[in-house]
Sequence to fold (882 residues):
Amino acid sequence: MRPYAIVMILWVFGATTLQARGDEEPIATRVYETRRTVEPPTIDGRLDDPAWEKVAWAGDFSQRMPTEGDPPSQQSAFKVVYDDDALYFAFRLHDDPEQVTRMLARRDGFPGDWIEVNIDSYYDHRTAFSFTLSLSGTRGDEFISNDGNRWDSNWNPVWNGATRIDGEGWTAEMRIPLNQLRFSRAEEQIWGLQVQRRLFRLEERSTWQRIPKDVTGWVSRFGELRGLRKLRPKRHLELVPYAVARGEHFAAEPGNPFRDGSAAELDAGVDGKIGVTNNLTLDFTINPDFGQVEADPSEVNLTAFETYFQEKRPFFIEGNDIFDLRVAPAITGGSFTQDTLFYSRRIGRPPTHDPDLPDGGYAEIPGNTTILGAFKLSGKTGGGLSIGLLESVTAKERAAIAAGGERSHLTVEPWTNYFVGRLQQDFRRGEVQLGGMITAVNRKLEDDHLSSLPREAYAGGIDFSSYFRNRDYRLLVVLLGSELRGSEEALYDAQTSSARYFQRPDNEEATLDPTRTSLSGHAGSIRFTRTSNHELMFQTGVAWRSPGFEINDLGFMRTADEINQFTWVGYYKRNPFSIFDDWGLNANQWLNWDFGGNFLGASYNVNSFADFRNKSGASAGITRDGEYISNTLLRGGGSLRWPGNWSYRLHFYSDPRRKLRGSVGAYLARGDDNIRELREAWFSLTYRPTNALHLSLSPSYAHHRREMQYLETNACGDEDRYLFASLEQKTVVVTLRLDYAITPNLSVQYYGSPFIATGRYHEFKRITDPRAVRYRDRFHVFEGDEIAYDPASELFHVDEDRNGTIDYRFENPDFDAREFNSNLVIRWEYSPGSTLYLVWSQVRDNSNLLVDDPDYHHNMKHLFATHPENVVLIKVSKWFSP
Fold:
């Protein structure tokens, strides 16, 4: 069936579902009336303070999980009072005290039984502040945005709570300082309110304000907290200075003055928050330290594109929802859905220039660019205008060079300024949004050898979304543009990068211009969605990125010059039936073109998942990638016709409430014409011997056989040769984690992950006719005396015409990658907002040694025989709030 016919079927199928909801009884908005107290309650979990006698209990919770709308197994009730400084909550959680689950975890672990409060103090029906208190005393807090579609646990306000077990179950109290919330100056205020309880042993959730699982939105459907009168927002000021001592020990390198075996340093900085107005907060950091951040996972990347890594640094994670503007965040998924205007990992990245050293020379290059300072101004006005500004300055980084008995310095990264600005206005109680965003990168290029970097990079655009027909449907539009400026060398690199390959000989839309000093382009997406108000939902749309669109100086994008059409259709049963707690089925399709009008390919996918009554679950999927045309696989050569692929995925997991729980999964992919086969399997075991200790082990194994793996491009006379080979790649990763919460404020965490990847190449070949109809006619396999290997130089010699003259050479591409990353972090919050970290980090890297027998045991032996690099640091910070 032609891809266009399938698209029409999906569109017709979606159109037939455009029906109004039935005449369901609307759910009444619940209201709690609070009162001011003169004498605040003592937060000890006892509920015996006179302040609680001023207000009534609110209860009559309803079940949300597993069966929405049913009465909960155990009822809950709460009270709320306030004074000039804080909100106070009291909770009565009915239960059998012998069966309650008291589990410890580090902050934001959300263990065991808990009670949670969500407060929409902006009353914008889109954002809220969440405070969770576990029976064990563990606190959790999250900033909720996008009407409940995003929960940011990196938001860490300063508040306190206490719990107590008694004959009726357990009780809890919370004190939430008003300076941790944002609200207007109105004389009488109405805030959105939701209270949610988790009953761990039944994995049951119940809520005060009933919100059906099959409706769109969370914050927009809260109950109301009334009675808040004459509240005056506090001028919020927080300062958190820190000091860190760091010591390193590593293998000494003879002759290298920069690697003598050890290093030590002392450093200091400060983080802070300033309440500019009652609705706007300025977060800032001076010389931030991220030494306690877990290392990125190891990988072997044989593609032309960089890997997208998640941000892990607290300053950039907290509150980053407002800066999240993606080109096309489609439900279907796909690599194009990760393209984003702001990728914070660009700030503080490793220096880009690699010094050209003379023989016998050594260099000490900083591992990351120093962030001199950064600030974020964010918040939301009473009129529904969200504001986000981020400014960061990184230092000029210089490498120290030792050569010929002399020392010198060379700039490897210029002074750079990064700016992000974001505005978003709500209309009709958050049902309509219109926003805009701009980003700017400005580099101070004072050294000729850095002229390959763009001098200026700008990007920006607008986004629009609107619900209609009782939030049943949603239209989302994103329109973006970009401009890059710099030297001819910088723009030449941008034109020939893997994002666009303007030099491609069959590129019909864009041509390489070596004299260009600027580059501009546009991108965007249009998505139309039938929301979760129904069992049957869909999303369909189109995304594009013109050939000149470029955002990689401060954003993330793999490829330009593409148009992507996509459709997703899903059917979900959200309440228990038969053996299921819930069940779902969805189908996806993708069609791709380039801007020259060439059809690149089509893909189709079907997935299903099931959560069972015993709390175990399973998921499965099957994907068909049709034959496609790749504009990137020859890395600047012509486009290449590539065979299609079938892939299959299967995953099972056990009841997460058990002391010993696990999951297992497998993935299989087979290419047409026997071009590839990937077999991957993994499992995970988590053991909880006590309510304070969690151990997990997660090994995985992958065996990937490729008949066509790109090697390099070589010149042969006046022509280029695009070299490929068959590859057998095996990868083993084992991840071990330990989490031990000694108290809610004192925890020990360990992460360790040995990584082994081996690759052996054979059957070398060159591309001859990249778009030939028959797969085997697209390349020529080197045979006999066309190719020879010289062990002394570790080079392959190619003599295409067998005349005894070597036409070109290439290095032996075989590899053994061995890495071990580990972190041990002891974290103690010795007073509210103040922490002490003790961190031990170890790295072992032995990826240069190629062994004859590349099995797992030999590689592990070589890995752990390698001298490690150990880093120990002590960091102490103190929170001040005058």
About this structure: Residues 1-23 have pLDDT under 50 and may be disordered. The first strand starts at residue 31 and ends at 33. The two ends are 69 Å apart (CA to CA). Residues 314-357+372-394+414-568 form one domain.
